[in-house]
């Protein structure tokens, strides 16, 4: 039972490498992605970052500014904290799926829904990360506009897929997004620690 859950989650996580090609109209499957052109992956990445980053911007524009301030305060540790955010989402998701496997419902619609939720959470983190990075770039140009930052961030997300092979594009994609979400994650982590100290 758990092995089928592990296979499904592995397939779902490898979907992160596939998703840009799928969004651009390619069929899913790892062999298809390795054969997919960089331009197709770049278009898919651009669309996904616009979609998920735009959702975050629409709901929480002030949070983007606070995250950017936190990123600028300590940029040297941003990638570490951003990767920590990805690991937390993956750990919580894997735990949830393992619990579904224990009660025997991981192979049902509920198990599939859990995998979709994990992938959506990862895409929200990624879209938000590129939104913050793009806003940082527009801020450096002297035009602090998160809407423009969303487009710049989506463009930055596409560049790695365009010029690098799949593994390199995925690595650049994750590291740049981790840099963007690192400031917000650092604030969240240390806010949680200060609450524990006050108790």
From TrEMBL:
This is Uncharacterized protein. It comes from the Archaea. Keywords: Membrane, Transmembrane, Transmembrane helix. The chain crosses the membrane at residues 40-58, 78-97, 109-134, 146-164, 170-189. The keyword Transmembrane applies. The keyword Transmembrane helix applies. It comes from Haloarcula limicola.
């Amino acid at each position: 039972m758990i092995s089928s859950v592990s296979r499904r989650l592995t397939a779902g996580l490898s979907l992160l490498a596939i998703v840009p090609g799928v969004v651009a109209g390619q069929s899913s499957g790892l062999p298809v992605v390795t054969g997919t052109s960089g331009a197709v992956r770049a278009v898919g990445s651009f669309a996904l970052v616009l979609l998920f980053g735009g959702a975050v911007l629409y709901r929480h524009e002030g949070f983007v500014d606070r995250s950017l301030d936190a990123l600028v305060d300590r940029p040297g540790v941003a990638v570490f904290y951003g990767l920590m955010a990805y690991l937390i989402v993956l750990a919580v998701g894997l735990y949830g799926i393992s619990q579904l496997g224990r009660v025997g419902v991981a192979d049902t619609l509920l198990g599939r829904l859990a995998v979709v939720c994990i992938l959506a959470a990862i895409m929200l983190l990624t879209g938000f990360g590129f939104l913050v990075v793009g806003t940082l770039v527009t801020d450096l140009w002297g035009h602090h506009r998160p809407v423009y930052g969303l487009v710049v961030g989506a463009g930055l997300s596409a560049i790695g897929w365009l010029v690098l092979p799949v593994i390199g594009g995925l690595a650049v994609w994750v590291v740049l997004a981790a840099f963007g979400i690192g400031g917000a994650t650092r604030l969240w982590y240390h806010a949680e620690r200060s609450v524990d100290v006050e108790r």
